[in-house]
Specification:
Helix content of chain A: 25-40%
Structural class of chain A: alpha+beta
Number of strands of chain A: 28
Radius of gyration of chain B: 13 Å
CATH superfamily of the largest domain in chain A: FAD/NAD(P)-binding domain
Number of strands of chain B: 0
Strand content of chain B: under 5%
Largest interface: A-B, 11 and 8 residues
Oligomer: heterodimer
Structural class of chain B: mainly alpha
Helix content of chain B: 55-70%
CATH class of the largest domain in chain A: Alpha Beta
Largest sheet of chain A: 9 strands, mixed
Shape of chain B: globular
Number of domains of chain A: 3
Number of helices of chain B: 3
Chain lengths: 536, 64
């Protein structure tokens, strides 16, 4: 989503400006990796690379985390990635878990749904958590890693004003309270958000579809006894908008969203008295609350043609933007860096050719297209653009009250799930006896194992064996893969074994499946590892 | 399942008459809304996404 620019106020001051030695160095300082933007995606990128021992410098034009709840729904896959990065514990402690959703049309409850998350996963389908907390917990994890020696540096009030890419790196010009300086980076990761100044500096396009609608966010703090559920209204009887959403956040704060339409007077709609009138109509006259944060946003669904431009790589909202319906913004940005971190580290270490990074482009463009498709469909359902589209939408809603089949068509945002990289050049052999959900390219579904959880045991390239023999360590292409030897339990059988008697999985460092076989073959595993490193 | 374009109705005249009679007394807007619900109900009955796509293409191609 794109909120209107205004003087940025901070929820947390985290990295106040401090003069760096680079600013008075006689020659231009050199850094292997520079990340621009310390939002959720930039921080996760720095954390991932730093934990791999890759020196990373983060530049941000602010000195901390901006206020406002903004992204509030963090999905299972993002939490699993944060767990791999050592940041998920505080998120789970603070976040609100919800399972029940209610869908209303006008004054009628059409139906209730339960997310019914599949059992035997460490993390729930979603938690609700204000974005500043999400960023703060990533920052805290960075501080903890730094204390252990991880080479991560964050410079606040360092605003990039120019970027000059070359074949071997990028020269950056940076403005600070002490004046400008320049530095040289081998790799530049642009995580500078939907308005990405870097994208503009490099003259790169960002095309897509504009949705002509304005949404008002009102975060209110109240102690009213609303249940921890997601309530969504189409054409609500209280007339506070064409659609409305009520969703619980931590700290007794509720996210309320009103769809206002296109032709509005923003300043007037943000008048607290007018916001309160809308909220009063929704909650009823006797509910006491405080307005915590209000904002009006519009959105577009668009992406860059390519996310990789030589030594400059774009991630998160800078590379792709979706509507907020379905929680695919911040969640997909975290998946971007999950995909990029191990590849960049492998290329920098000389373990993989440069073209491995082209697969970041292939795979995450595929993911962005899937997210854009899903979020566009939800948006078209919530905000019909033609009379006939509205007629069919309302026909679905009319049937949904009594007919189960119509509920499948009601789309107020689909569950954000990670995409499978079908067709990726990194994918190796598949075995048709095994379940489709774990085919090559798929994110590994979690499952209980004797010492805890499967995903917590997958860090780096891993050879997972289920009721199958293999050596304890396999070395190929300069990489030693540990073997995770498991005996199938119910969850592992359903998710990984299927009709096969045994299974050998080559798992990527981002916990996606690279290849799988029914039994171990040293040459086949080595070939698949080479392919996964971009050597074919 | 390919789209059936030969007659598949057990009693074409009766079903057609019921379709028209179902709209008796409705305003044009109410009739359009009824048709929309009917399309959704029948689409679910067909089920198969490719068959539905064929039907949509046929309906669109016939538009003048």
């Amino acid at each position: 989503m794109t909120a209107q620019p205004k003087a940025r106020q901070l929820a947390f001051t985290m990295y106040p400006y401090a003069r760096s030695a680079d600013q008075s160095a006689p020659t231009r300082a050199h850094h292997p990796v520079v990340v621009v933007g310390a939002g959720p995606v930039g921080l996760a990128m720095a954390l991932d690379l730093g934990r791999r021992g890759v020196p990373v410098l983060v530049l941000d034009d602010s000195e901390g985390i901006g206020e406002g709840s903004r992204a509030i729904c963090f999905a299972k896959r993002a939490l699993e990635i944060c767990d791999r990065l050592g940041a998920a514990g505080p998120m789970m402690d603070k976040g609100v878990v919800w399972n029940t959703g209610k869908v209303f049309h006008d004054d009628r409850l059409l139906y209730e749904f339960n997310l019914l998350p599949e059992g035997d996963h460490a993390f729930p389908a979603f938690i609700n958590l204000q974005q500043p907390y999400f960023e703060k917990f990533l920052f805290d994890a960075i501080q903890a890693e730094r204390a252990k020696g991880a080479p991560i540096e964050i410079r606040g009030s360092n605003r990039v004003t120019a970027a000059h890419p070359s074949a071997n790196g990028v020269t950056l010009e940076i403005d600070t309270p002490d004046g400008p300086y320049a530095l040289q980076a081998d790799w530049l990761i642009a995580c500078d958000g939907a308005r990405s100044p870097l994208r503009g500096m490099l003259g790169l396009g960002f095309d897509g579809r504009v949705f002509e609608d304005n949404f008002l966010i009102a975060d209110v703090r109240m102690n009213a006894a609303f249940p921890t559920e997601r309530w969504f209204w189409f054409e609500p009887h209280f007339k506070s908008g064409d659609s409305a959403l009520l969703h619980k956040q931590p700290d007794d704060v509720w996210r309320i969203d009103f769809q206002l339409g296109w032709d509005i007077d923003r300043a007037r709609e943000l008048d607290p008295a007018r916001v309160r009138a809308r909220v009063d109509a929704m909650l009823g006259p006797d509910v006491e609350y405080d307005l915590v944060w209000t904002s009006i946003y519009t959105f577009q669904c668009r992406r860059m043609d390519r996310f990789r431009h030589g030594r400059v790589i774009f991630a998160g909202d800078a590379a792709h933007q979706v509507s907020p319906f379905g929680a695919r913004g911040a969640n997909s940005g975290v998946q971007d860096i999950d995909n990029l971190g191990w590849k960049l580290a492998a290329v920098m270490a000389g373990l993989a050719p440069d073209r491995l990074l082209d697969s970041y482009d292939t795979e995450r463009v595929h993911g962005a297209d899937e997210n854009i498709r899903n979020s566009t469909r939800a948006t078209d359902f919530i905000t019909p653009k033609t009379p006939v589209s509205r007629m069919f939408r309302n026909a679905v809603l009319a049937l949904a009250e009594t007919q189960p089949f119509a509920r499948a068509m009601v789309n107020s945002g689909r569950l954000s799930v990670p995409c499978t990289y079908d067709g990726s050049p990194l994918n190796g052999p598949d075995d048709p006896a095994m379940p489709a959900r774990t085919r090559p390219g798929s994110p590994c579904p979690d499952a209980p194992i004797p010492d805890g959880w499967l995903l917590a045991a997958l860090d780096g390239f891993t050879l997972l064996t289920l009721d199958a023999d293999a050596p304890d360590h396999v070395t190929a292409h300069g990489i030693t893969l540990p073997r995770l030897a498991l005996t199938a339990n119910d969850a592992l059988r359903t998710r990984y074994l299927g009709a096969a008697r045994g299974a050998v999985y080559l798992i990527r460092p981002d916990q996606h499946v690279a290849a799988r076989w029914q039994s171990y073959d040293a040459d086949a595993v080595a070939a698949a590892l080479g392919r996964c490193l971009g050597k074919e | 399942m390919p789209l059936i374009t030969a007659n598949n109705l057990s009693d074409p005249d009766d079903s057609y008459a019921r379709l028209i009679a179902t709209h008796d007394g409705l305003t044009e807007a109410q009739s359009h809304a009824l048709n929309a619900r009917l399309v959704l109900i029948l689409m679910n009955q067909v089920g198969d996404a490719r068959t539905i796509a064929e039907a949509l293409d046929l309906a669109r191609a016939t538009a003048r």
